[in-house]
Specification:
Strands 8, 9, 10, 11, 12 and 13 form a six-stranded antiparallel beta sheet that branches. Strands 4-7-5-6 form a four-stranded antiparallel beta sheet, covered by helices on one side. The protein is of the alpha+beta class and 346 residues long. A hairpin with a 4-residue loop joins strand 8 and strand 9. It is built from twelve helices and 13 strands. Helix 2 crosses helix 12.
C-alpha cells in the first residue's frame, strides 16, 4: 500500500512591499468610512493576504528617492519585492524607473518589466504598435501640450479626448466625449491645462466596456472577460468609464454602475481571448495586466488601452474575474509572487 503524498509546505518569504508615500493603510482600518477604506482597498488586501499566507511583509513608502530601497534590500534581504508603485516623484510616467532600478539590483519583483510599462503608458505608441500587428484600434491623433488642435479629415465626430499617459480614468468625464469642433478645442485645452500633459483624440467607439485580465511571463492565462454595466445612464450621457464611475462609491450606487462576467457569443469570446494574448505579447507585458476594450454591436473588439500592474484589490475586476475562473484571492497573490520570483531567476 502506497503512502499518501505529503503536501509540500509553503515557503515563508520575506516580501518587501513598495508603496507610494501616503499609500500605507492606517493601523485601525475599521475606523475608516466606506469611501476611505475604498481608497486603501488594494494595499489593505495585499498586505493582509501576504500575512495570511505566512509571509513576512514589510512596507516601504517611496516618493522621490531610490536610496531607501537599496538600503532595505541590503539590510533585510527580501526574497521578492511586491511592487505597487504607480508613480515616482508624483509622476505616473516615471513608474518604470523603479522597476528598472530593481532589475539593476538583480532583485526579483512582481508586476511588469520596464519596457512593457513604457509601451503601455503611451497610449498612442501602444496603438501604433498594435496597428502594425493588425489589431483593431480607434482612429487617433495626439495634440502635444502647448500645440493647437488641427483635426484631420479621418477623425469624425463623436470623438473622445483623454490624457495620453494618465491611467485610472483620470481626466475622463461625460464632457470628454465631444460632438463638434468647439467642444473638441475646449476639452483639449482642459487636458493641457488641468491634467498638464499631451491629449489623445480618439474615434469614439459606441459599444460595451470590456476588460480582460491576463497574467504570466511566457505561458499566459487569460481570465474571463469582464464587463462594466451602466444600468441608469442619464438622458444625453454616454456609457463610459469616467473618473467618478471608477472611484466614487456613492455615484456608482446612484447610477447603477455594476460589473460582472461578460455574456459573449462563443466565437466573440474566443477572438477576444486570442487578441488579448497577442496584445500582451506585442507590448512586451509580463507579470499581470488588464486590457481594456470597447466591443461594438457587430462583435468587433477595439483595443483602448493596456494597464500593467492594475488594481488587484479582492473587490476589483481583475480578482473577481480570477475568482470566476476558480482562482481564489490567496492563490492569485501567491501566483503573482511566483511569477516575479521566476522571472528573476531566468
Amino acid at each position: 500500500m502506497s503512502r499518501p503524498r505529503r503536501r509540500r509546505a509553503r515557503r515563508r518569504l520575506r516580501v518587501l512591499v513598495l508603496l507610494e508615500t501616503g499609500r500605507a493603510p492606517p493601523e485601525d482600518v475599521d475606523a475608516l468610512s466606506d469611501q476611505e477604506r475604498y481608497e486603501f482597498k488594494m494595499e489593505i488586501d495585499v498586505l493582509a493576504t501576504l500575512r495570511t499566507l505566512g509571509h513576512e511583509a514589510r512596507v516601504l513608502e517611496v516618493r522621490d528617492e531610490l536610496g531607501p530601497i537599496r538600503q532595505v534590500l541590503y539590510e533585510w534581504k527580501p526574497h521578492v519585492v511586491f511592487n505597487l508603485i504607480e508613480s515616482f516623484f508624483g509622476l505616473r510616467e516615471l513608474d518604470q524607473h523603479v522597476a528598472s532600478y530593481l532589475e539593476l539590483l538583480r532583485v526579483p519583483y512582481t508586476g511588469c518589466n520596464p519596457r512593457g510599462l513604457v509601451l503601455a503608458r503611451d497610449k498612442a505608441l501602444a496603438k501604433t504598435i498594435l496597428t502594425y500587428h493588425r489589431i483593431h484600434v480607434p482612429k487617433f491623433e495626439v495634440v502635444h501640450s502647448g500645440r493647437r488642435m488641427r483635426r484631420s479629415k479621418r477623425l469624425t465626430f463623436p470623438l473622445i479626448v483623454k490624457s495620453l499617459t494618465e491611467e485610472a480614468s483620470v481626466g475622463i468625464a461625460q464632457a470628454s466625449v465631444v460632438w463638434d469642433q468647439a467642444e473638441l478645442d475646449e476639452r483639449v485645452s482642459f487636458i493641457h491645462e488641468s491634467i498638464t500633459g499631451d491629449a489623445l483624440i480618439e474615434e469614439f467607439i459606441d459599444g460595451r466596456e470590456i476588460y480582460v485580465g491576463v497574467f504570466g511571463n511566457k505561458r499566459l492565462t487569460v481570465l474571463p472577460p469582464w464587463e462594466l454595466f451602466f444600468e441608469k445612464t442619464a438622458p444625453g450621457s454616454v456609457a463610459i468609464a469616467t473618473e467618478r464611475v471608477k472611484h466614487n462609491l456613492a455615484y456608482q450606487l446612484k447610477h447603477g454602475i455594476t460589473e460582472g462576467e461578460a455574456e459573449l457569443e462563443p466565437a466573440v469570446r474566443a477572438r477576444l481571448i486570442a487578441v488579448a494574448k497577442r496584445i500582451y505579447r506585442g507590448l512586451s507585458l509580463d507579470g499581470y495586466a488588464r486590457l481594456d476594450f470597447r466591443l461594438r454591436a457587430d462583435g468587433t473588439a477595439f483595443f483602448i488601452e493596456a494597464n500593467p500592474n492594475p488594481e488587484i484589490s479582492s473587490q476589483e475586476e481583475f480578482a473577481k474575474s480570477a475568482l470566476k475562473a476558480g482562482i481564489k484571492y490567496e492563490r492569485l497573490i501567491e501566483t503573482i509572487l511566483s511569477l516575479g520570483i521566476r522571472r528573476g531567476t531566468m
